[in-house]
Amino acid sequence: MTNPQPILELADVHTYYGNIHALKGISCTIQQGEIACLIGANGAGKSTTLMTIFGVAQASRGEIRFKGDPIQHLRPEQVAARGVSQAPEGRQIFPRMSTMENLEMGAFLRKDKVEVANDLERVFKLFPVLKDRMHQLGGTLSGGEQQMLAIGRALMSRPQLLLLDEPSLGLAPKLVERIFETVLEINKSGVTIFLVEQNAHMALTISSTGFVMETGRIVLTDKASALLENEQVKKAYLGE
Amino acid sequence: MVRQELKKIVVYTFFLAILFIPMLGFKTPSFQPGRVFKTLGVFVAILIFNFIVKLIRSRRKAGEVQKTPLTERAGAWINQFPKIYTLGGLVVLAVVFPLVADNYMIDVGITCLIYVCLGLGLNIVVGLCGLLDLGYIAFYAVGAYSYSLLNLTFGVSFWAALPIGIVLGMIVGCIIGYPTLKMRGDYLAIVTMGFGEIVRLVLNNWDSLTAGPNGLFGMQRPGLYYPSFEESGFTWATYYLKSLPALYYFIFFIAIVVIIAVRRLDNSRIGRAWIAIREDEVAAELSGVPTTWIKLLAYALGAAFASVAGAFFAAKLSYTNPNFFLFMESCIVLSIVVLGGIGSIPGIIMAAIALIAAPEIFRQLEAYRMLAFGAIMTTMMILKPEGLIPASRRRHELHEADEKKPTE
Asked: What is d(CA B291, CA A187) in angstroms, rounded to the nearest whole number?
């Protein structure tokens, strides 16, 4: 990446949930090909940020640009069609659909069957366990498998930008490591990743840029390596 | 376990007994406890039979592998024949039925088939898309009234009125669908229920258009056209389907078309999107499903099927009035969907036949038919809450899931 291009830019984005002012002017830039992470406490507005990017929650003010084009007024399916994909928090897979059907749902917008089959193979290569569970209902998978399925499903749309919401939530440390390794692998294949995490240490270790969020605002933006050394961050999020 | 099951029987029997209290008759001349005991006896016998079956099965469980449930074994037994034979057999049975049955039975058969269409239509909305619609019968009314009015006012034939009725039904479906897009569960149920009542009340009170509670009558029956060669030359003659067997075959044909259509929808991309919305709406949105359109489509298509059934209903009776479209009817259609097994086409067909035929069988009980109906529903839900024939796709998957349990 000699000359990185911003793939996603947020400029002063405000979002309301009814009367609750969830995002109070978020601005951040994510470069093409990097892993960026957004860390912060519960309820800081991390998931809301992702939902706002995707158009599930509507931004009331501000601008969101994907590869230079404003996308804040698009509906979720239009955002998805542009090459953004999201693995939601809490692994919202389809519980009564089989693993295979879940993955096929990820490719809902695509019509190129041959390429979809190739991508399916790619996902199975990343997560071999999913192949073994192919015909099993999503709801009967273990927590780790469900997380893999959620990421796999998000990859099935062949995204340029992958939004990951708390992939480590509720997983055993060993599995968390495994998930983060996979995230790195996905990133190496050319997918830009925007990671939202509470597991700040892990997230900052694999990311190049980090944002720290507090009650609806981004309070710190820096290189991830610098944030790992930052006294404030260390104290609040790294438990040192 | 035995004690638990016995307790269940006692509790359920008590519950059913309370349900049957009105049958006692409170005035002296009509006081007939025997009637209650007879009816109650039937249901208690069913419960006890179920208990014995469970007992036998639990005894076996200790030693050998538990056997698959009876319905699945029956299903497997049926599946060993080529599918075409089973289907063909059922079709032949349905075709032969009017030849051996009397007019009354044929009439019941026609009603069953109408409800098959309604059940399958509602299955799209409730079973596939997961939107609880308690006002579904409104679309049935739209179909019936659009044919009636078109035929009486403009003399439009059944075939020409059918597509218009379908389009009208779809429009009304979208009208109710649009404001409820953001609603879920209880709220949606309340709004759709209110909507169903609004349609009925409008039909009841718009005297100048719908003739109010008197209803509309004198519509033509569905006609078939055939070429006739007369002295004056070639013309098209119309054969109106007036006899019950003719109407039966006609609705049978419609039902088959509906079954094929729903089957195809079920396996299509849209069907998949519906199921995804039912399973998890946000996840469906994130997968790029245009949830707004897909939900509206579910309402519209569900309404279209109801509209077809309604148009046929009005044409068959040559009469329609707002009291055919009471809230009760919506409940019956919903019961058919739930009882048959949500999302299962054969289940819904079975349930439609069972639920429509059952009140007819209990006709001797006169005013207490609905009680018996309620008792059947209660017993069914106790014994087989997943429905008569659970959707095969699901069962298949669940079965495979049993074989490979997650090891983690």
From this structure: 30
